[in-house]
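[agent] plan:
  1. take the single chain provided in the ticket
  2. run structure prediction with default settings
  3. attach structure tokens to the ticket
  4. add a short note for the reviewer (M.T.)
[agent] executing step 1
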Amino acid sequence: MEKVNAIGRRKAAVARVYLSEGNGVITINKRPLDDYFPSSILQYVVKQPLITLGVEDKYDIYVHLDGGGYKGQAEALRLAISRALVKINPEDKPALRAEGFMTRDARTVERKKPGQPKARKRFQFSKR
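[agent] step 2 finished; step 3 output follows
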């Protein structure tokens, strides 16, 4: 099997994933998974598609992660891994879609408007 690549986005985070056959090593920006994401919850979020399909130790994953915060990066990576797994085996798509891993979460921060302190907050109104 040759390298399979995929991209995942969430908020301002972009994850570019390269999947190849191996023994379950996940490397993010030249660092191991547990070093990059010290939180066990975020490590679990990243591994969810692999656990769902039962292929945790079948693929080596190399990742370029850029932008956003750690939560957005973890969810972008989850989407990218799901897309790469579907490229390898299209029959896995219904199982991943049922768990919600194939859907791009399009919610992003709303822009700040001029004449307002934030996106929707207004300065105090004074009648006189």
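[agent] step 4 note for reviewer: Strands lie at 4-10, 13-21, 26-28, 31-32, 59-66.
[agent] ticket updated
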